[in-house]
Amino acid sequence: MATAAAQTAPSSPGAALASDPRVLRAMNWLQHNVPLINEEQVRITEVPAPPFKEAARAAMLKRLLSAAGLRVSTDSLGNIIGERPGLARNDIVMVVAHLDTVFAAGTDVRVRRSGARLIAPGITDNGTGLAALVALARALQDARIKPRHTILFVADVGEEGEGNLRGMRKLVETYRDRLRAVIAIDGAGTDFVTTSALASRRVEVSVTGPGGHSWSDFGMPNPINAASRAIARFVVLRVPDDPRTTYNVGEIAGGTSVNSIPYRASFKVDMRSEQESEIDKIEAALRAAVQAGLEEENSTSRRNGANGQLNVKFRTLGIRPGGELPENSPLLAAVREADRMIGNRSRLERSSTDANIPLSLGIPAIAIGAGGLSGGAHSLDEWYDPTGREIGLQRALLIILGAAGLEPIP
Fold first, then answer.
1. Least enclosed by CB within 10 Å: which of 67, 247, 277, 351?
2. What is the CATH number of the domain that holds 339?
């Protein structure tokens, strides 16, 4: 909070930052404009942004970031990039919040209210982050803060699911040699900082065959049967607790009618681990289970006198690389100093976020929450409670300025 920051001891590493009148003004702006930020979040959330269809929400963020005094552009993938120039134009601190949600087109994203709670699909993930992105840009503009490093405020595409972090991949490709830090704002809370990137891989398995009629072609190999046999074999796989490793069969599709032998069935698998070599082991087990399931279904069909044959294809939907922020990183020091200044305690966390890409390349990166409380992520009843939101926003501001620095007051 602004008062706490003002009382920071002069000998502390963040004393100059905490006592700077421009920073205090920006902190106060965030504290006093929470109702405005809440309503902005509602408006952002109610603009649908399903996977690969973020354009309408992107257009809104472009207007909002422009109104916050930034020079705004759109890259070839649809990332919205707002620039606040610094003295060192070739040194960049990137602050990013993702535009997309996990919800399909047509999902009702109107916000409901229950006491302090705002309830809607995507209200926290990432309506909270996007509202924070705009609020932080406005606070810097109101306080006329000139950073030492250029700050880019970015609303990016493709963070969720099969988006495969495509927006962040493009941003790193564009700015890699100039990036000094990446700060992803994703969801609520102030009790964590993601400093380790959780590696993951997503695979689609497609089984195809001749298909046929359920009566006249009985005995023909059935792709759904083969996929079911494969899944039953795969899900008994045991994985280690250390390094923590998980897998999930998240989608199954196939068939055209109840009285037809399908010509295709598919399923999608998500695999994650704190150690990437474990993902290789899971995928190997998956492929073995699929081949066994296929052979069993083909053999059953041959015993029934049918001549059909099933085939399988594997398709990688996405790979998220791992990585870690060093314990002695100046960016982590900025987080700890910000926490100290506002009286906050946070734990280090491993997760899968936009920070994966820069961390995997040795670029300092973190993901943080934007304050407030939340629950029901990725559900239709996802909720956000803005109580304490100002603390999260002030913490984010201090981290950003701790990484970017300030030009001296003239």
1. 277
2. 3.40.630.10
**H or E stretch covering 57:** helix 55-67
Amino acid at residue number 328: N
pTM over 0.85: yes
> Are 298 and 330 found together in one domain?
no
| Exposure b/e, 359-369, CB count within 10 A at least 16 = b | bbeebbbbbbb
Bridging pattern class, strands 365-368 and 179-185: parallel
Q: Are residues 183 and 251 in the same domain?
A: no
Strand 199-208 relative to strand 264-273, pairing: antiparallel
Q: Do 158 and 396 contact (CB within 8 A), yes or no?
A: no
Q: Please check whether residues 213 and 266 belong to one and the same domain.
A: yes
pLDDT in tens, 50-101: 999 999 999 999 999 999 999 999 999 999 999 999 998 889 999 999 999 9
- Residue 266 has which token pair? 């598919």
Residue 239 sits at φ, ψ, to 5 deg, of -125, 160
Q: Which domain holds residue 27?
A: 2-197+322-404
CA–chain centroid gap for 34, Å, is 24
Q: In the chain, count of helices (H) and strands (E)?
A: 12, 19
What pLDDT shows up at residue 362?
97
Cβ–Cβ < 8 Å for 384, 73: no
CA distance 218 to 173: 53
Q: Is 302 exposed, middle or buried (0-12, 13-18, 19+ CB in 10 A)?
A: middle
Domain annotation covers residue 233 = yes
- Of 205, 201, 260, which Cα lies nearest the Cα of 227? 205
Provide the domain count of the chain.
Answer: 2
- Grouping H, G, I as helix, E, B as strand and the rest as coil, residue 60 is helix
Beta-strand relationship, 117-119 and 383-385: antiparallel
Question: Which residues, 6 or more positions from 342, have their beta carbon under 8 angstroms from its beta carbon?
Answer: 1, 4, 5, 391, 394, 395, 398
Q: Which residues contact 327 (CB under 8 A, 6 or more apart)?
A: none
- The tokens describing 99, both together, are 């535009």
Identify the residue whose tokens are 């996802």: 382
Q: In 133-198, at which residue ranges do the beta strands (DSSP E only) sit? A: 149-156, 179-185, 192-197
pLDDT bucket at 12, cuts 50 / 70 / 90: low
- For the stretch 232-251, what's the b/e string if a residue is b when 16 or more beta carbons lie within 10 angstroms of its beta carbon? ebbeeeebeeeeebebebee
Q: How far is CA 214 from CA 208, 217, 254, 265, in A?
A: 16, 6, 15, 16
Tokens of 386: 């803005």
Q: Are residues 109 and 204 in the same domain?
A: no
